[in-house]
Amino acid sequence: MSTIAHAQKRGFTGTIWEYLTTVDHKKIAILYLLAGGFFFIVGGIEAMMIRIQLAVPNNDFVSAGLFNEIITMHGTTMIFLAAMPLLFAFMNAVMPLQIGARDVAFPFVNALGFWLFFFGGVFLNLSWFLGGAPDAGWTSYASLSLASEGHGIDFYALGLQISGFGTLMGGINFLVTIINMRAPGMTYMRMPLFTWTTFVASALILFAFPPLTVGLFMLIFDRMFGSGFFDVAMGGNTIIWEHFFWIFGHPEVYILVLPAFGIFSEIFPTFARKRLFGYSSMVFATVLIGFLGFMVWAHHMFTTGLGPVANAIFAVATMAIAVPTGIKIFNWILTIWGGSIKFTVPMLYAVAFIPSFVMGGVTGVMQAAAPADYQFHDSYFIVAHFHYVIVGGIVLGLLGGAHFYWPLMFGTMLSEKLGKITFVLFLVGFHLTFFIQHFLGLMGMPRRVWTFLEGQGLATGNLISSIGAAFMALGIIVLLVNIVITQKKNIQVGRDPWEDGRTLEWAIPSPVPFYNFKQLPLVRGLDPFWIEKMEGKTDMTPAEPVGDIHMPNNSFVPFVISLGLFVAAFGAMYHADEGKDWAIPVLIIGMLITFGAMLYRSVKDDHGYHIHKEDLLDEAEGGTR
Amino acid sequence: MANLHPKSGDPKVTYEYRRKKNAEEMRMQVITFTMMIFFTVIAFVAVGAGFSKWFIIPFVLLLAVVQVIFQLYYFMHMSHKGHEAPQLFMYSGVIVAFITILAFLTIIWL
Prior knowledge:
The complex is a heterodimer. Chain A is mainly α. Chain A has a single domain (23-553), classed as Cytochrome c oxidase-like, subunit I domain (Cytochrome C Oxidase, Chain A), CATH 1.20.210.10. In chain A, 65% of the residues lie in helices and 1% in strands. Chain A has helices at 12-21, 25-53, 64-98, 107-126, 142-145, 152-180, 193-224, 239-272, 279-292, 308-320, 322-336, 345-368, 370-376, 380-410, 416-442, 459-489, 528-534, 557-574, 583-603, 613-620; strands spanning 549-551, 609-611. Chain A has a two-stranded antiparallel ribbon with strand order 1-2. The longest helix of chain A is centred in the first third of the chain and has 35 residues, at 64-98. Chain A is globular. The N and C termini of chain A lie close together (12 Å). Chain B has two domains: 1-79; 82-110. Chain B contains three helices and no strands. The interface between A and B is medium-sized, with 20 and 13 residues.
């Protein structure tokens, strides 16, 4: 029996089952892309509702309470359920191929990470239908969130806890993969920048998520089990939540933006057809940003009353981050400089990213000056700043990355024409929406405000901002149309579709075989595929003879483990309510499902299977035997 | 992985050489194990002898740190080749945690 039979065509239910049980990093990447894309649209709809409410003075499109729920869920969804999984999608799809690995180090844990994130996200969003969403802002400051009625904050704490486990697992998995599974010759200083940024972002996940986990557990205990960590009346300290949240929250910003930097660092050299300028300084800057990211959390809390010494030290540390970021910006510009530039859609996003992100960075340095921050704090200036960083940095990176890596993930090429329409609509909409918000903030419009009155001078600015948001929405709709048309036509573009691919992922046949590399490639320098091309070769030199390939078996266990926690979370949440005796049994049943599935996994041996050498050779000859 | 485990079947590593290595390692383990027990005894004695707590607490903590280092390097083989990445991550974790706690203790009002 051929061991390559796994790659055969399946029916619809077969495909669904394949994706529910898959441990293949390429399929998990598609799952991350689908789930992250779904939550991105949910968060986008929430954003549109915010902008509709604020489009005209004294509007009552949504009530004040609902508005609080919408802003909270917009922020939480976009950060935890859209941006992170979408970046994880690219990390999963690209990073193992870039370092010449056949999969990530722990394929099972990879699947578990996805399903935990997915069930956590679903749990969080079910709050809309089960008595109200969280309404204390995405930061959920304890003094406010402990006072919040209903179960909204419980949904927030439990949902983020579950999806946070998944993220932590993903991060550790990427670290182990990059350290241990690089192809022969792929030294650290030959790794593509996207792999480097994945590495540093994963290290940040490793160190930043535990504080969030601890903080969320304290919040869960305070709200659901009667403890008093943040309750001043019981001798607790409400400020500790802020510290925990921002010790996690500031590195989180870099967890998001570094992989986006990585995507751009791949796009620039490809379409400038020139080696990345200052590769080693880029690596240095990435690591330095990662390190400094842990030293600046208190700049979110300047107005808490930390005192002048703390404010001064954290202000200086914050400004220091502008230095490595500046190194990166100049390196990107110098990469384009003198290159033979092709303005494809990914390149357009990359070029637009530089000025957009720099504007966000400059306002960031303005806020780093603590005395000035007292003026900016909690105003729309802040809103404008972080949207410039997140949309101008991360979302442009995600959109550019989606166009750039689409052929690698799906074997098809998104339409350049529609892509350019999306680009123009989105970029114009983005600047229209958020640029004016700087001035709204300086004019005194507070952040998270439900509405404003006529005659306060805020009407025109807000209307312009809302019109811009509509442009962004149109851009995303065109992108969705583009995706549907492309996948419907399903024109396979083959290997190296951009023609100037430099790194290993473009050297693989398209669609990528499920075992990635028949023979692990020999890496002879930075941009290994480019080196081979420049020497007139079309393929990588193999570093090993054709041999049996060890593959992991699919498993349904990750889904079940995650489902158990999802069920248990309902029990934990409702057990304190009057007359809900079913809650404790539900909690226990959920935990039994999870631990039972873990036990099953531990007891049952699963050694995977081998693709035999003969089958690989047979496949190379077109299956004649 | 030949460099992780001295008992691995790498033909280049001769039997004699491995024997010598193992004996050396065993000796180090016995020595550190004895020292760790000795440290524990000293710690108990220090508490029992009734010194000032400003001496005892830092002293016991110091002994604990030394024991952790022994544990990692002699029993968990962190001194061997191939442990550079775990070392890097442990030390950067320690540094980050130390600076964070230092910031809390010195400059931040809680």
